[in-house]
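Sample intake sheet
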Amino acid sequence: MEFTIDEANVKKRLDVFLAENLENVTRSYIKTLLENENIKVNGSLKKAGYLLRLGDKIFVTFPEDKLSQIEAENIPLEIVYEDEDIMIINKPKGMVVHPANGNYTGTVVNSLLYSHKENLSSINGVIRPGIVHRIDKDTSGILVIAKNDQAHKKLSEQFKVHSISRKYIALVKGIIKEDQFTIDLPIGRSPKDRKKMAVVSKNSKNAITDVRVLKRYYLSNMTLIEATLKTGRTHQIRVHLSYLHHPLVGDEVYGKKDPNMKVSGQMLHAKLLGFIHPTKNEYVEFDSELPDDFKKVLEKLENKERS
């Protein structure tokens, strides 16, 4: 795994940066990785307290004993499209995209290792073969998989410059009055809880989300929206809407549990993904229907409005 330091992270301690950017990895485990020489900066070993400089390249490798736990599993995936370079899947809610510390089974990667082991890009190593981007465990929807390194590099570049088209459907609490608007607020690690993201001015990156109201459920005090990502920050939609006091229904991390709504996880679906095909060099676009549990919730809200 590789990171390049930008201005927002200059003079930050190496171990602090890694704790913020390595998912599900503890500070003690980072210390172990440093002691075992699994972390290098610009090709050299550094101490935990090393202060990062602009342009520094951090390389992180994970011990083989951990990687050996990642096994192929016969887990069916809904494949929307596939050719020699890419595969588009419709990830179900509740499924993790790739293994992380302490979680090595039941992921998209475990499934890919069973069905496409010899046809996945190697850029992100053994833990994330073929994975170009990710969506949260409890977010359903479209995900692109790279089947070779060339495709991976071209897709990654598009994600980096935010030229990818990404539209999500979300159900949020409260009635949003505006029909259409843009949220332009920077996102970074929460100073109160390092496991969460937040709208903050320091150590943050610009984040832009376009919002369009699809339906207002006045009797249930909820709004169905389409959110288009102009950037791709961690938990961007969840953080932006929560900041505006419209947290996603079912999101107990950035909102509060609603005893009247029996849903598991946030009501968020990655509906559309569009990009320039890595070898055909033409724009392609893929979408998926809302999952059944999402549809059932909307049906109940519709029935309440008509009653």
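Comment: The radius of gyration is 20 Å. The chain has three domains: 2-61, 67-161, 165-271+292-306.
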